[in-house]
Hints:
The protein is an alpha+beta fold. The chain has helices spanning 10-17, 21-29, 51-58, and strands at residues 36-41, 44-49.
Amino acid sequence: xxxxxxxxxxxxxxxxxxxxxxxxxxxxxxxxxxxxxxxxxxxxxxxxxxxxxxxxxxxxxxxxxxxx
Length: 68
């Protein structure tokens, strides 16, 4: 069965991992986490965390309705 991929907000991922939000921001900016990435546009970053890759890497299930 193919899973639907959706963006997991950084705050939700941090809560699920029981980590500080800044921890995830820095890890994504530095390319440490294989489940997402940070893209710098001018002076701000935009973040994307793949729900499928997040679950594969952490073993933590995330439901799309939790991310709204």
